[in-house]
Amino acid sequence: ERETHQKLLADSHGLVMDLRWQIHHSEKNWNREKVELLDRLDRDRQEWEQQKKELLWRIEQLQKENSPRRSGSFLCDQKEG
């Protein structure tokens, strides 16, 4: 009976150590993935901001081309109209 208990204890210990290893590596992988995702989000956000600036600039240029005698921007003209 004592041998059986020792074997069960050894098996349990082995399982616990294996689970600890798995948890440790899962956390480590998640932390790395989280950093990568946050970096990608920052890059995407910067890219979107740059695209937004470019689009606003293009809108402004089109407004100048289409109505050179008008002063003000499209947004101001919309409010007046």
TrEMBL record:
Molecular function (GO) terms listed? microtubule binding
One BP annotation, GO: establishment or maintenance of epithelial cell apical/basal polarity
Q: Which residues form the SOGA 1/2-like coiled-coil domain?
A: 17-70
Q: Which Pfam families match?
A: SOGA1-2-like_CC (PF14818)
The family database entries (InterPro entries) matched by this protein are listed as: MTCL1-3, SOGA1/2-like_CC
Please provide, in alphabetical order, the Gene Ontology terms of the cellular component aspect for this entry: apicolateral plasma membrane; lateral plasma membrane; microtubule bundle; midbody; spindle pole
Q: Any stretches that span the bilayer, and where are they?
A: none
Q: What is this protein called?
A: SOGA 1/2-like coiled-coil domain-containing protein
Please name the source species.
Mustela putorius furo (European domestic ferret)
Instruction: Look up the coiled coil feature and give its residue ranges.
Output: 27-65
Q: Mind listing the UniProt keywords for this protein, alphabetically?
A: Coiled coil
